[in-house]
Amino acid sequence: MRPISRYFGQFNIVLFAPEDLLVARGSPSDRRKFLDRAVFNLAPDFLPCAQDYEKVLKNRNLTLKSENMGASQKEQMLEVYDSQLASLAAKMLRARIDYLKAIGPLFEQGFESITRTGLPAKLIYQPAGDIEAGSSTEEELIESYQLGYQKNRAMDLARGSTSLGPHRDNLHFELASQPAANFASQGQLRAMILAWKTAEMQLLASVHNDPPVLLLDDVSSELDPIRNEYLFDFLRQRENQCFITTTHPDFVLLREERCDFSVEDGVFSRISEG
């Protein structure tokens, strides 16, 4: 690991927080946010696309719920929103799928390195509805979404919400071809997230030819000793700059290239420098 130094210009950041360890067994929305944060790190143009999608989705849902529009006006508005939403949804879905294809092998290797059990771990993306995301082009996805919005129009009007799109998709973690949320132990679930984060760091470094900055927010206190040791073994082999918050310095398994600071009563001070 590199010692703490000043950075200039643009750089990538990978955040590893305690709540991330709960993602595999959490809600689909938590996993979508977890995935989208990683996609944006790799492809910055993903964020404005996702933001535009949320805006159009909000307007479409408001139109679906509206009691002040006639049926004809509502249909015209929905046709416009369907076209806009289909294009943005296709871009979001393609970006998510491409990212998972890139990180998948690194994730699988990382999980085996951490657990050494021989049990295969997989990342499975499940689009809402009948969308076939695997080998579809962006143009084909746009057409699929437009057809889906038309097919679900009556149901969406009855519910007052949009039932199809990336906001309804799910990311599943699988262990030995079984849903990890139901069959994996707590330690295995945490190993999966640790494998994801180490894979994310490797992917960013290879694509941008520059190691990302890693922020570890009191994660070590949530990991068992074996997995915490794996994490720091991994970090020792990398050139990443790393900032770590912890409740006890013994959780940080580094002796060299290390600077320790404390925060007490709002006062920030240096303790030591390795």
How is this structure best summarized?
The protein has about 270 residues and is of the alpha/beta class. Helix content is about 50%, strand content about 15%. It has one domain (about 15-274): Glutathione S-transferase Yfyf (Class Pi), Chain A, domain 2, CATH 1.20.1050.90.
Furnish the topology, listing elements before pairings.
Layout (H helix, E strand, L loop, with lengths): L12 E4 L11 H15 L3 H20 L5 H45 L5 E6 L11 H14 L1 H7 L10 E6 L2 E2 H4 L2 H23 L4 E5 L7 H12 L5 E4 L13 E6 L2 E7 L1
Parallel strand pairs: 1-5, 5-6
Antiparallel strand pairs: 2-3, 3-4, 7-8
Helix pairs in contact: 2-3, 3-4, 3-7
Summary tags:
8 strands; Glutathione S-transferase Yfyf (Class Pi), Chain A, domain 2; disordered N terminus; three-stranded antiparallel β-sheet; 8 helices; alpha/beta; three-stranded parallel β-sheet; 51% helix; 274 residues
Explained architecture:
The chain has 274 residues and is an alpha/beta fold. The protein has a single domain (13-273), classed as Up-down Bundle (Glutathione S-transferase Yfyf (Class Pi), Chain A, domain 2), CATH 1.20.1050. It is 51% helix and 15% strand. It contains eight helices and eight strands, in the order βαααβααββααβαβββ. The protein has helices spanning 28-42, 46-65, 71-115, 138-151, 153-159, 180-183, 186-208, 225-236; strands at residues 13-16, 121-126, 170-175, 178-179, 213-217, 242-245, 259-264, 267-273. The strands form three sheets. It has a three-stranded parallel sheet with strand order 1-5-6, covered by helices on one side. A hairpin with a 2-residue loop joins strand 3 and strand 4 (178-179). Helix 2 (46-65) crosses helix 3, helix 3 (71-115) crosses helix 4 (138-151) and helix 3 (71-115) crosses helix 7. Mean pLDDT is 89; it is low at 1-9.
